[in-house]
C-alpha cells in the first residue's frame, strides 16, 4: 500500500504531538526537496503571516493547540509549522491537486470519490490516521506528514464526509488559513454545521469542499475563497478538479493549470456518460482513468504541476453508515472501514 494505517487518541495537544512524531523521521527531507517550502521561506516573520496566526488562534483555539502539539512532535518552531500550513494562502500555486466525483444512487445512497494528488515525494510516505479526540467526534483522514488532517479526504464518527480540492486563487486576504477551516469541518456533526462554519469564518485562501453526511440526502459542492463562498447541491452526478467552476466564483482571479483544465473537461465528460444504473465501479474507473497526456490518474514523473496521485478514496454514505474504501492506483481496495463504528 502507498500509506500506513495508524490509530491515535487523546486530547488536542496529545493528538498533535502524535501526528508530529509520526512525521518527524521524514519531515526534514520532505521540506528540503520541496519547491513549495523554498517559496515559503521568504515569508518568515512577515506581518501578514502574524495576522493569519492571530486569526487562527482567535477563531479556532482548539485546532491551534493541535498545531502546537504537531510542532512539538516535529521538533520544529511553531512559526515554521504555521508557515507550512499557510502555503495555499500565501502562494498562488502549490503541489496540491486532486479530482473529486459524486453520485446519488437510485437506492438513496450517496457516493463521493476522490483522487488525492500531491508531491510525488510523498507516494508511499503518507498515513491513514484514525483519530479519537476527547472533545469531538474523531475522524479517519489521509495524512500528509507535518500537516493537520482535513485538507485531503476524511470522514468523522458523526458521519460527515469531506474531500478537498486545491483552488489556486490569485487573492490574499487576512482571515483563517484554509487548512484550519478544512480541519475544523471534521469537528462538525452535520452538513448544516459545516456550511455555517464555512460561510461565517473569514477565509485567507481557497479550497473546494465536497461534503456529504449519513442521514442527509444532500451532497454539497462548496467553493470557498477569500471574500466568497458558493455552495451548490449536487444532482445525480458531479465532477470537480482544481479551479473554480461555480457561476458565482469562476470569474474570480485564479490560476488554471493545463492539468486542471484537462482533468475537469475529462471528468465532466465521463460523469455525463453515467447512466441511472451506473455504480461506484464507474466512479472508480473515472478516477483511475489514464487517457491523454494529462490524465485524471497522475503518475508521470514529469507532471507539469509536480503532482502525482497518492491514493484514491471512495465513500459510500447511507442513512446509517459511512464506509471508506482506499485504493492504490488500482481497482481493488486496500482497506475498507466503517467510519461510524467504534474501532476494535
UniProtKB/TrEMBL annotation:
Pfam annotation, one family: AAT
InterPro entries from the UniProt entry: C45_proenzyme-like, Peptidase_C45, Peptidase_C45_hydrolase
Residue stretches making up the Peptidase C45 hydrolase domain: 107-326
PANTHER family per record: BETA-ALANYL-DOPAMINE_CARCININE HYDROLASE (PTHR34180:SF1), PEPTIDASE C45 (PTHR34180)
Name the UniProt record assigns to this protein: Peptidase C45 hydrolase domain-containing protein
